[in-house]
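Sequence in, structure out. First:
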Amino acid sequence: MRNYPRNSPLAAGRVLALMLIADGNVCASEIQVLKQLNAEGRLGLPPGGLDVVLRDLCEDLMMGGQCTGSLLASLDAEALRSLMEEVSNPQLRDEVMSLAQAAASADQHFADAEAFVLGAACRYWSVSPSRLQPATGGAA
């Protein structure tokens, strides 16, 4: 797994990308919501930067696993902790959390895998799980 500088746009983008691929289906509605919210700009990524981070994350996960199921299956607890620790700035964490929730809610379905990634962010970032309430009213 690549290492990114702490609190860099790439580190923040990777946590968001992890949520996007969590359920195995990056929906057009998720991407559209992130574009409407200017996710790349808010995280400090250049135009098209989230696509690059998403591709790199998928490559890293495929290299680390057997590719026999979910990409998240190759992400162990230590790797997940390491990814989350690369984002330590509270404001950047809030930005990532807000964007991740918006994307997770975009398709009107809050998948278990999305809840898992957002729950991990809550645990590692000491954020109250009550923040995991999608704006669309889906079940967490």
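Second:
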Amino acid sequence: MPQTNTQQQAPLTQEILRAIDSLRFGSIEITVHEGRVTQIEKREKVRFSSQPLEKLA
């Protein structure tokens, strides 16, 4: 029996949710070609406090 469109999209949806869940600061870019997702790109930003490190301890 062929998979339905929803069943085919489940792994893709899970991958997108995983990327979002693992990100604190940044962006997720989803690339689509001819109506199909071909790439998920995650850009993460690492932020540092403006205080010197010795004052954080």
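Remark: The first helix runs from residue 5 to 21.
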